[in-house]
Amino acid sequence: MPRRITLFSLVVLDYYEAKAFFLSISFTCREDTPLSSGKRWLRVAPKDGETEILLAKAKGNRQVEVIGN
After folding, report:
1. Dihedral (Cα; 61, 69, 30, 23), 10-degree rounding
2. pTM of the model as a whole
3. How far, in Å, CA of 15 to CA of 49, rounded?
4. Cα dihedral sign for 42, 13, 34, 16?
5. What does the alpha-carbon distance between residue 50 and residue 39 come to, in Å, rounded to a whole number?
6. Domain ranges of the chain
7. 7-38 tens-digit pLDDT
8. What is the chain's alpha carbon radius of gyration, rounded to the nearest angstrom?
9. What are the start-end ranges of the E strands in 1-69?
10. What is the reported pLDDT for 68?
11. Contact (CB, 8 A) for 58 and 36
12. CATH number for the 7-65 domain, one of 3.10.180.10, 2.30.30.100, 3.40.50.1220, 3.40.50.2020?
């Protein structure tokens, strides 16, 4: 059975900026669903790709510090 990664999370500072960046490099938005407390379930992926990125907004200083690492 082949193994593959289908989804991984990427911590971002701002949903709108991150989404705009990925769309500018020809990714597509697969889902953008509002959740509670200002969170969103935001998945992007390359147009013909199988692997998706879940854009997760940083909450608190500790998560902000790891953006880009």
Report:
1. 100
2. 0.88
3. 21
4. negative
5. 24
6. 7-65
7. 999 999 999 999 999 999 999 999 999 998 88
8. 13
9. 7-12, 27-34, 40-46, 52-57
10. 82
11. no
12. 3.10.180.10
- Nearest C-alpha neighbor of 14 from the set 64, 57, 68: 57
Give CA–CA dist 62/21, Å, rounded.
Answer: 23
Token output for 68: 């880009």
Give the up-direction half-sphere exposure of residue 31: CA atoms within 13 A in the CB hemisphere: 13
Two structure tokens written together for 18: 């991150």
Separation of alpha carbons 61 and 36, rounded Å: 20
Q: List the structure tokens of 12.
A: 């971002």
